[in-house]
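for the recovery benchmark. C-alpha cells below, seq after
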C-alpha cells in the first residue's frame, strides 16, 4: 500500500484546494478523475481516498465498488451524497441553503480536536441514513456529516472554505489518524524523487535533450538534467515569434549563464504562417503545440545517441492533459518528466533550493501559446506587435510601482474591434491568488492612467482600453 491519499475529482477548484491542504501537512496526495473505477484505484493502492464534489447539487459518477476496497473514504460536498447513495441511503431535498449555522460535532475520529463552530452552507440536503451509518455532525437540526464505522467511510456535506482551519483539521485527522499516512512529503523528498528519475534515465546511457521555454519549470528540469547527465545533455529553445518583448534573448542568456549547452532555433516565420486565418483558441493552441513537437523531434533526430527527452511538465500541466508524456507516446526515446508530481509553487521552491535566481523562480506563468493566448481572433504580425508593446508597457509600470511580486500575474488582452470605430480594443488584467480564486487587483488609478496613455501612443491601432474586474476560479480563466 502506497503512503498517499488519492483524491477523486468532481470539482477542480475543490480538489486542488484539498490537495494543497494535505500537502501542506506533508501528506503526499494525487488527484485523479472522479470516474476512475475501483479496479484502477486498486492498482494505485492508496492508503485513503477523498471524494471532492461541489457543495451544491451536481452530477457525478462514482463506482460504488470504491467503497468496498477496504480503504478509508472521505466524501466532501456533493460527493457525500453520492457516497451515501452508494451505501443504500438517500437524499430528500434541500434542508438548508445559502446561510450560516452552528455545527455541533459528535464523537468521531474525523473530528478530533474540533469544537462547535459556525460555517456557511451553500446547500445542505436532508439525508436518510442506512441502519449501519450514523450521524456524526449536525447544524440547525440537519445531519451535516455521517460515518460507517466498520468500513471507515465518512461523508461531510460542506466544502473547504478559504481561511478554514477546521477543514484542514478534518483532512489531517482523516489522512494521519484514520488512514495512517506518514508526513513524509517534504521539499527534500520532492527533490530527491525528481532527481532520482533523471539519474535512472542517465544510467541507461545516451544523451538527453531538454525542451526549455524560459519558465521556471523547464529551467529547473534543465538544471536537474545537467546534474544527472553531465555533458551528455543539451537544451533546445524554440522561438515561436509569440514571446514577449526581449524575452527570447533573455531566455538564451539565462540558460547559457547556468552553463547549460543550448541550441536556439527560430521558427517564428513558420508558426505565423501556419497560424494564418486561425480564429479559435483551440485551433491556435494545436498549431503551436504541433509545431513545437515536430521541431523538437527534428532537433533530437539530428543529434547522435539521444535516448531521453526531458520535459518540464508540472502537476497542473499533467492534470490538464490527463496523462504524463501527453503527445509524445510515439517518440523513439524515453520521455522523462521529473516535475510531473510537483505543483508550480513546489517547483519554485525546488528551483531556489538548487540555487536558481529569484528572477527565474518567481517568473510569472506564461502559456505555451505565448501572446497568442492573450489575443482574440487571428494572430498577425501587426496584432502581435501591438500586444507585445502593450505588454512591455504594462509590465514596466507594474514593476516601477513595486507591485510585480505582490501580483500573481498581469497582462493585456487584445480583443476584437470597436464596432463604432473598427479599431482594436484591449483589456488589462492583473490578479492576486486567494486560495483557488484569481482576484482582480486594485491598481493605483495613476498607474492605469499612465499605462493607457502610453499604450495609445505606442500602439495607435488600439483606441479603447478597459480594466478587467472579474474574479475567476483558477483553471477557469479565459486567458492565461
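predicted aa per position
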Amino acid at each position: 500500500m502506497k503512503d498517499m491519499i488519492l483524491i477523486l475529482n468532481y470539482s477542480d477548484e475543490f480538489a486542488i484546494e484539498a490537495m494543497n491542504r494535505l500537502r501542506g501537512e506533508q501528506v503526499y496526495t494525487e488527484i485523479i478523475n472522479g470516474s476512475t473505477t475501483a479496479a484502477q484505484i486498486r492498482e494505485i493502492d492508496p492508503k485513503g481516498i477523498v471524494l471532492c464534489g461541489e457543495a451544491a447539487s451536481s452530477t457525478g459518477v462514482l463506482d460504488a465498488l470504491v467503497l468496498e476496497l477496504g480503504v478509508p473514504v472521505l466524501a466532501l460536498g456533493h460527493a457525500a451524497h453520492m457516497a451515501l447513495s452508494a451505501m443504500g441511503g438517500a437524499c430528500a431535498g434541500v434542508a438548508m441553503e445559502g446561510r450560516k449555522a452552528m455545527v455541533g460535532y459528535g464523537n468521531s475520529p474525523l473530528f478530533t480536536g474540533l469544537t462547535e463552530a459556525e460555517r456557511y452552507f451553500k446547500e445542505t440536503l436532508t439525508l436518510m441514513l442506512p441502519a449501519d451509518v450514523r450521524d456524526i455532525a449536525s447544524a440547525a437540526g440537519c445531519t451535516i456529516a455521517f460515518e460507517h464505522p466498520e468500513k471507515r467511510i465518512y461523508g461531510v456535506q460542506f466544502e473547504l472554505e478559504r481561511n478554514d482551519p477546521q477543514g484542514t483539521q478534518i483532512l489531517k485527522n482523516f489522512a494521519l489518524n484514520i488512514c495512517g499516512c506518514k508526513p513524509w512529503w517534504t521539499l527534500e523528498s520532492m527533490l530527491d524523487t525528481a532527481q532520482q528519475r533523471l539519474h535512472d534515465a542517465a544510467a541507461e546511457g545516451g544523451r538527453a535533450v531538454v525542451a526549455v521555454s524560459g519558465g521556471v519549470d523547464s529551467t529547473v528540469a534543465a538544471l536537474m538534467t545537467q546534474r544527472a547527465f553531465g555533458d551528455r545533455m543539451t537544451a533546445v529553445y524554440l522561438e515561436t515569434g509569440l514571446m514577449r518583448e526581449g524575452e527570447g534573448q533573455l531566455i538564451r542568456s539565462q540558460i547559457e549563464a547556468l552553463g547549460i549547452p543550448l541550441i536556439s532555433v527560430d521558427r517564428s516565420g513558420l508558426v505565423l504562417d501556419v497560424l494564418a486565418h486561425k480564429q479559435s483558441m483551440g485551433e491556435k493552441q494545436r498549431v503551436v503545440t504541433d509545431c513545437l513537437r515536430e521541431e523538437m523531434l527534428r532537433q533530437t533526430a539530428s543529434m547522435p545517441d539521444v535516448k531521453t527527452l526531458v520535459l518540464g511538465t508540472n502537476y497542473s500541466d499533467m492534470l490538464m492533459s490527463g496523462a504524463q508524456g501527453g503527445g509524445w507516446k510515439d517518440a523513439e526515446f524515453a520521455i522523462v518528466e521529473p516535475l510531473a508530481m510537483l505543483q508550480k509553487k513546489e517547483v519554485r521552491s525546488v528551483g531556489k533550493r538548487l540555487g536558481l535566481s529569484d528572477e527565474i523562480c518567481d517568473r510569472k506563468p506564461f502559456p505555451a501559446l505565448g501572446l497568442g493566448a492573450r489575443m482574440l481572433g487571428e494572430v498577425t504580425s501587426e496584432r502581435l506587435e501591438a500586444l507585445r508593446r502593450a505588454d512591455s508597457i504594462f509590465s514596466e509600470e507594474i514593476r516601477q510601482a513595486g507591485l510585480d511580486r505582490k501580483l500573481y500575474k498581469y497582462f493585456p488582452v487584445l480583443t476584437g474591434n470597436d464596432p463604432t470605430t473598427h479599431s482594436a480594443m484591449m483589456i488589462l488584467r492583473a490578479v492576486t491568488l486567494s486560495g483557488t480564486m484569481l482576484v482582480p487587483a486594485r491598481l493605483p488609478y495613476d498607474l492605469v492612467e499612465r499605462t493607457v496613455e502610453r499604450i495609445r501612443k505606442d500602439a495607435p491601432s488600439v483606441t479603447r482600453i478597459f480594466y478587467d474586474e472579474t474574479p475567476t476560479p483558477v483553471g477557469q480563466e479565459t486567458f492565461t
